[in-house]
Amino acid sequence: MLGWLLLVCVLVSIWTSSTTGAMAKTGRYAHYRRTPQYRKALAELRARGAVQQCWSCPKVLYVELKWPHPHSITLGHYTAVEDGGDPYDPNNFGPQCIACNLSDGADRTNSKRRGERGRVYVDDDW
Q1: How far is CA 56 from the centre of its chain?
Q2: pTM over the 0.85 mark
């Protein structure tokens, strides 16, 4: 019985690590994350310190934690690449938590769906 339990635990851990790794390599910008320039930029960001703070929120981020942990470091751009920001310039990126990085992308996508006009406001005397 203990042998079967051990086998199941090993298989679950192998399956979990393989699906998490596959998930990290897929997605809309997977090609961008695979480039040598991006890996170099991420390594430079991680070399800035073992413990860093997200530049969008007060969350503490740890270099040793890997994606998709909520306290792992992701590369967040101050000026979005879509707006002309250099994706590999060290002055244009900083540590950002996953939640902030994903919400920035969602905000940009939603504003595009609204036709780049943002929220519609109506005057009081209308």
Answers
A1: 12
A2: no
